[in-house]
Amino acid sequence: AMAELGAYRCIECNGEAAELYRDYQRGVLRISICKSCQKPVDKYIEYDPVIILINAVLCKAQAYRHILFNTKINIHGKLCIFCLLCEAYIRWLQLQDSSQNTDPDDLIRYAKEWDFYRMFGIASLEQTSFFIGIFITLWWMTPEMLKRKSDFILLLKALLLSTYGKLLLIPAVIWEHDYTPLCLAFIKVFVLISNSQAIRVTLNLNRILPWFAIFFGLILENGVVCLFQKMGWDV
Question: Transmembrane residues, as ranges (predicted)?
Fold first, then answer.
């Protein structure tokens, strides 16, 4: 059965499409052609998932459109929690390195465990403030793009999925070397580039506006960091 118009998107021109392919049975499939650009609606349906992942890592808009519009991926919530756990673990390790306390007392171990939960909470609040900054900026500058609740949900899903780069934090610390701080900085930049591409693809914007939104998101996030520091918390 044919889906309603707009159920899928062309990965090349972002035009709406009713179907990705037509099944002629007996194993014969024909990829649909976009009526706007006359190119295959989604060439990635024939590709191996590893190739799609590589294209996503390269921040190709076509790969992002395939993942966001033409698949039923529903791991954004779990991925967000896992990325926050990775970030909390890195901060917790750095906090332990600075404390230099080797006392095996149960109270000390409990305090260290509480420090991990605190770092998870701080990382969650920082990411939330970063997203809020992005949403406020985009809603203020392009209100017509975020009229419906579904638009907000899709953008949130795109932002959560595009934070997958934080998973690289763990191997960067496990294989610790003199360049670890530089690696962590590169991971941060990569995540921001992924966020920018996710915003651009989801709302079909130019390259400048997503970075403008990310800039204000970072300002709000750093404001939260400064607030924690004034409260005397290690972040």
Answer: 119-140, 152-175, 182-202, 208-228
